[in-house]
Amino acid sequence: MGNRIMTRLDRYLLRETLPVFAFGLALYVGLGLLSNVLARSAYVGQMPLGGMLAWLGLQVPAILSQTLPVAVLFAVLLGYGRLARENELLVMQAGGISPRRTARWLLVGGVLLAALSFCLNEWVIPWSTKQTVLTWWRSFDGNGGVFRLVGQDLPVGKLRLFFGGYDAAKNELTRVRVQQWEDRRLTVYFAERGRLEGTALRLQGVKGFMLDMDRLPPPEFTDLEQVEAFFQDYVRAQNLAQSLTIRLSLSQDDLVSRFSNYSSTALDSSQPPSHWWRQARDPAATVKEKVEARANLHAALAQAFAPLVLLWLALPVAVKRASSPGVALGLALALTVAYYVLFGLGGVLAQTSVWAPEIAMWGANVLAVAGGWALGRGVYR
């Protein structure tokens, strides 16, 4: 009989919080989409309806991951806070049911939401982020926004790619330069035209040059003829065939999604946590690349745990501080702003190497857990 009563109690508690959670999640996702529309309002009106709907839909996974913690705060402070205000939790305690027991399924839900957030970051958000950028540019340019890359020096694996112009009618790059360092040797290719086909860069009208730095430093020169003779000796020009194909590590879509300046943030959500894990342990990566990888890895992990962490903080706040619906809403807003300000500050500090990325990115979560524990007398202990 006792188990049956407890099951009914669990269902009752979930009925109090789940509808509020669903409403809060829909509200915050809608606000996130609206803010993105307003930020690009001058261009959204020029998009075809189908393209605009696809663009909005592709943003939902990333916004969902960011709003799950806020919806948890909203649900707990309003739903669970109402039980505390109307002394229902007190009645349960009088019946021998502790607040920690009543929050059991909420904490289980927090663990599930943390797992969902991690799965979104690993398998869904990198793809949806890339498709969001491509859908946006394809709404204005049938070739997918390659024109946005003109004039940029693009790092593509060990290569650097530059093109000074773009022929949209032919989907061709013009005035192309590709360069690569191998130890102390620099190889540069200049081409009149180029075309990106998957990960293949097909160049036309190519000339190649190789600069061997082991021949430096140059000797002392007394006239210009000596300079010309010396440099002709160690700079070798190769007049290649009319065409050359170079295999890149990124496709055209990858280049557009990564370098088109669609948005600028301190942290990169276009790659899954597993990518940053591998890069942080890559012996060939530079110190800067490893710091960036650690910052992005721990940002993804900390964000995944945010629903559980803020649930942990919200439960004692709801029991002890949410004296009215208005106060509960105010607390939800204040805690949300405080958490994301600290999280954003951590992202900036992680990239500048002022603090270790692990400390910077987990700081907001650690403070939230500590705050929940400090306020949790009578709830957790």
UniProtKB/TrEMBL annotation:
Q: Where are the transmembrane segments?
A: 20-43, 63-84, 105-125, 297-315, 327-347, 359-380
Query: Which GO cellular component terms, listed alphabetically, does the Swiss-Prot or TrEMBL entry include?
Result: ATP-binding cassette (ABC) transporter complex
Q: Give GO BP annotations, semicolon-separated.
A: lipopolysaccharide transport
> Topologically, how does it sit relative to the membrane?
Multi-pass membrane protein
State the Pfam families in the record: LptF_LptG
Keyword Membrane included in the entry's annotation: yes
Q: What keywords sit in the KW lines?
A: Cell membrane, Membrane, Transmembrane, Transmembrane helix
Is the keyword Membrane in the record?
yes
Q: Which domain of life is it from?
A: Bacteria
**PANTHER family given for it?**
LIPOPOLYSACCHARIDE EXPORT SYSTEM PERMEASE PROTEIN LPTG, SLR0882 PROTEIN-RELATED
Q: What's the protein here called? A: LPS export ABC transporter permease LptG
Q: Supply the source organism for this entry.
A: Calidithermus terrae
